């Protein structure tokens, strides 16, 4: 918000956000499969990011980026309906693994932001994937397997 915004507007936005968050949390708690669909979709999006970064990052198309990431997210989400328990484990494991390694990558460096990659490709500034990204990808895979076992 701008510095000229009235204080009550900030409190109204905060209050509205709390109310919406509580309502969404209530709905997802009552309809567990909907929540699992969303969680699996998010996990699929994370897998899609890894797949895009590893295999398709040289393609000069934002449609490829969104197609891969959203496509994998939808596949994971739809599979949740049929394989609820298994997909629930898979989604939480991949989400945790991705967020853990991505968090380390943000602090330690050498983990490219997938949204920045798209912009670099559009501006013809992309020089290729940093080799350390593949170490992060391996770490994500290892943490994913550990998460599934646990």
Q: Name the structural class.
A: mainly alpha
Element-level helix/strand string: HHHHHH
Tell me the helix content: over 70%
Calculate the terminal CA-CA distance, rounded to whole Å: 43 Å
Global shape: globular
Mean pLDDT: 88
What is the overall number of helices? 6
The major sheet is characterized as: none
* Share of residues in strands: under 5%
Q: Which stretches are poorly predicted, pLDDT < 50 over at least 5 residues? A: none
How many domains? The number is 2
Radius of gyration: 18 Å
Total number of strands: 0
Structural overview:
This protein is mainly α and 150 residues long. It folds into two domains: 1-30; 31-149, no CATH class. Helices cover 81% and strands 0% of the residues. The chain contains six helices and no strands. The termini are far apart.
């Amino acid at each position: 918000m701008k510095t000229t915004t009235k204080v009550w507007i900030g409190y109204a936005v905060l209050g509205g956000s709390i109310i919406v968050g509580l309502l969404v949390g209530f709905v997802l708690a009552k309809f567990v499969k909907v929540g699992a669909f969303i969680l699996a979709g998010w996990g699929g999006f994370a897998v899609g990011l890894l797949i895009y970064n590893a295999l398709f990052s040289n393609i000069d198309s934002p449609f490829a980026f969104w197609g891969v990431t959203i496509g994998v997210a939808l596949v994971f989400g739809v599979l949740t309906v049929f394989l609820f328990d298994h997909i629930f484990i898979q989604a939480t494991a991949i989400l945790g693994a991705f967020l853990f390694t991505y968090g380390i990558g943000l602090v330690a460096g050498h983990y490219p932001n997938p949204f920045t990659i798209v912009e670099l490709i559009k501006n013809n500034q992309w020089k290729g994937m940093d080799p350390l990204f593949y170490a992060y990808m391996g770490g994500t895979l290892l943490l994913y397997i550990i998460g599934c076992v646990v």
